[in-house]
Automatic annotation (TrEMBL):
It catalyses: a 5'-end (N(7)-methyl 5'-triphosphoguanosine)-ribonucleoside in mRNA + H2O = N(7)-methyl-GMP + a 5'-end diphospho-ribonucleoside in mRNA + 2 H(+). It is an enzyme of class 3 (hydrolase). This is m7GpppX diphosphatase. It comes from Chelonoidis abingdonii. The gene is DCPS. Belongs to the HIT family. The keyword Nucleus applies. Homodimer. Associates with components of the exosome multienzyme ribonuclease complex, such as EXOSC3 and EXOSC4. Interacts with NDOR1. GO terms for cellular component: cytosol; mitochondrion; nucleoplasm; P-body. The keyword Nucleus applies. One of its GO terms (molecular function) is RNA 7-methylguanosine cap binding. It is found in: Cytoplasm; Nucleus.
Length: 278
């Protein structure tokens, strides 16, 4: 599709040399206090169908009520482009041995940058968006709103806790020594959200992804009523369950078979197929 004005200039580069970009358009949630404004004189209705007491319309609201959240990844690598393409999806059952022999070497061979994560931790970017921080280098973290949430309503509340420790890639690296970090994230994260947004811990879904979208340990905090992307059973692992499992067995996530989904074009799927594991 075409984008225009400043966005068009950004995607095509200041020099005019076209480069690939990912542009994500998402309709922002309706805000309860604005619903009545949608039905006033500045809104245009076009009748589509009428049958007895039922009618359907196309509604064209004024610009100030037509906000579309736009996320731009530029310049986008081939990995970015593939990430957002529709693909067939396959479930993988990864044993601890599979992780060590297939997944870990693959992760180590990749060069997907997470400098943006370090920018947040070092406060060279997004420092004004930090909701809470525990500065301890081993057991501390920062809590920051996810870009999926515009912070205008609590129905789709979404925050991310990013740990300061840089040696933990994912769930697979966690052992009992990380329990103080995980407990800090669980308890301090809930307290910070209650204090700032008035949402109780019992109304939050707090979980880790496996596999994560980037390999630096982070925890998702979403409103329990919000069907957030990635909260499905084949990817989300409740933080409270992770803590319980590590208390029972310090090496739980080094040994457990984990299930996750891979798209048809992902190179890791090809590695599992070559090994006869998919």
């Amino acid at each position: 599709f075409r984008v225009k004005n400043s966005l068009y200039n950004l995607v095509n580069g200041a020099s005019g040399d076209a480069k690939d970009a990912v542009v994500i358009l998402e309709k922002t949630p309706f805000q309860e206090e604005n619903i009545s404004d949608l039905l006033k004189k500045h809104t245009r209705l076009k009748l589509q169908m009428s049958n007895d007491i039922y009618s359907t319309y196309h509604l064209y609201p004024p610009p100030q009520l037509s906000e579309i959240k736009t996320t731009v990844v530029y310049p986008a690598t081939e990995k970015h482009l593939q990430k957002y393409l529709r693909q067939e999806v396959y479930l993988i059952r990864e044993t601890g041995e599979d992780y060590r022999n297939i997944t870990l070497p693959f992760i180590q061979s990749q060069s997907f940058s997470i400098q943006w994560v370090y920018n947040i931790l070092e406060k060279t970017a997004e420092a004004d968006r930090i909701i809470h921080e525990n500065p301890d280098s081993s057991n501390g973290f920062v809590l920051i709103p996810d870009f999926k949430w515009n912070q205008k309503q609590l129905d789709d509340l979404y925050l991310i806790a990013i740990c300061h420790c840089r040696g933990i890639k994912s769930l697979r690296d966690l052992t009992a020594e990380h329990l103080p970090l995980l407990r800090n994230i669980l308890h301090e994260g809930k307290e910070a959200i209650l204090n700032r947004f008035g949402v109780a811990g019992s109304q939050l879904r707090i979980y880790l992804h496996y596999q994560p979208s980037y390999f630096h340990l982070h925890v998702h905090f979403t409103a329990l009523s919000y069907d957030a992307p990635g909260c499905s059973v084949e990817r989300a692992h409740l933080l409270s369950d992770v803590i319980d499992n590590l208390e029972l067995d310090p090496q739980y996530y080094q040994k457990r078979t984990l299930t996750f989904a891979l798209r048809a074009d992902e190179a890791l799927l090809k590695k599992f197929q070559e090994a006869g594991k998919a």
